[in-house]
Amino acid sequence: MTRYLFNSLVLPVDFEREERARFLLERIGEEEVRKGLKEGFVSAIGHEATARLLSELFGVEVPVQRREVRLKIGDEGIHFCLKKRLSEGEVITSKEELAEIGYFFVRSRRIE
């Protein structure tokens, strides 16, 4: 099982090779996120400001790694979700701005 950290609620599946996929999605709190990240993860965070803020928030190094991911059965995603969509070119630069916009986390598990 590989655990990925995403900066949106994406469910990447290789539909070139597979015809269907099933996921279990659940909202999780920051303590569960912290525990999961400390157990190990692969960053799929593509934005420097987001990586920096998540690093500060959880006390782990979140590298910027704009990568293509295809979740396999058993893989898990931790998804950072903002409560509103940012305008084109808008960037969050502080934890204070992040708190003002609001955010939550979702865990996805590929089960089929």
Low-confidence parts lasting 5 or more residues at pLDDT below 50? Answer: none
Strand order of the largest sheet: 2-5-4-1-3
Q: State the oligomer.
A: single chain
Structural class of the helices, strands and pairings? Answer: alpha/beta
- Please give the domain count: 1
The number of strands is: 5
By CATH, the topology is Rossmann fold
Question: What is the CA-CA span between the terminal residues?
Answer: 13 Å
Number of helices: 3
Kindly provide the name of the CATH class.
Alpha Beta
Strand content: 15-25%
Elements, N to C (H/E)? EEHEHEHE
Please state the overall shape, judged from the principal axes of the Cα atoms.
globular
Radius of gyration, CA atoms, in whole angstroms = 14 Å
Sheet with most strands: 5 strands, mixed
Average pLDDT for all residues: 92
CATH superfamily: Uncharacterised protein PF08960, DUF1874
Structure overview:
The chain is α/β, with parallel strands linked by helices and 112 residues long. The protein has one domain: 3-Layer(aba) Sandwich (Rossmann fold). The chain is built from three helices and five strands; from the N terminus they run E-E-H-E-H-E-H-E. Strands 2-5-4-1-3 form a five-stranded mixed beta sheet. It starts with a strand and ends with a strand. The model has no long low-confidence stretch (mean pLDDT 92).
Quick recap:
Helix content is 25%, strand content 24%.
List keywords for this structure.
alpha/beta; five-stranded mixed β-sheet; 25% helix; 112 residues; Rossmann fold; 3 helices; single chain
What is the fold's blueprint, element by element?
Blueprint (H helix, E strand, L loop, with lengths): L2 E4 L16 E6 L1 H10 L2 E2 L4 H11 L17 E7 L12 H7 L1 E8 L2
Parallel strand pairs: 1-3, 1-4
Antiparallel strand pairs: 2-5, 4-5
